[in-house]
Amino acid sequence: MSGKDVNDYLEEGIYGKKETRPDEKRRFLGTYRERVIIALTKKQVLEKGIYPEVEEAMKAHPGATLLINGKLAYATLSPYTKLASRYSIHARRVSNMDRKTDIGLVLDAGRAVEHKEIFVEKKEPEDSTESQKPWWKKLLGI
Asked: Does this model's pTM top 0.70?
């Protein structure tokens, strides 16, 4: 193994420490994709209710950390932070991101777990076509 030379120290001073896969870390709120147990997009976090898949993942991985996008409002994140505290999972808001991300919530294992499917399918509204009809069409049965 060779030591650092003067150019290495200069580059580190100018550009900062070298990072492995920085874009991946920015997207997944400071962690690598291989450590993610489950992830929700911002849109999914903003929906009412809690995704049961997240609760199941918290039950199955008690030593995990919940990473939450700090740019989202506290009121929308509160149900997930309460859920994390119920299962004794440390929740951390990540707000020092220099780029935008579509991720709203990540359950981080802290080590490589490499789940093939980390994203939860979006909830489908229940029988939304019936509720979108005007009241008079419902009354007449049209």
From this structure: yes
Q: pLDDT, tens digit, for every residue of 43-78? A: 999 998 899 999 999 999 999 999 999 889 888 899
For residues 125 and 127, what is the distance between their CA atoms, to the nearest angstrom? 6
Q: How far apart are CA 63 and CA 109, in angstroms?
A: 7
CA-based nearest residue to 84, from 58, 57, 119, 45: 58
Provide the sign of the torsion angle of the four alpha carbons 34, 67, 91, 84, taken in this order: negative
CA dist 82 and 87 (Å) reads 9
C-beta separation of 53 from 107 below 8 A: no
| Residue given tokens 């929906």 in the structure block | 47
| Cα 68 from Cα 80, distance rounded (Å) | 9
What are the CA-CA distances from residue 74 to residues 38, 44, 54, 99 (Å)? 20, 15, 18, 20
Distance of CA 44 to the CA centre of its chain: 10
93 beta partners: 68
Sequence-ordered alpha helix ranges (H) in the chain: 6-15, 22-27, 42-46, 52-60, 74-86, 128-131, 135-140
How far is 64 from 56, CA to CA, in rounded Å? 12
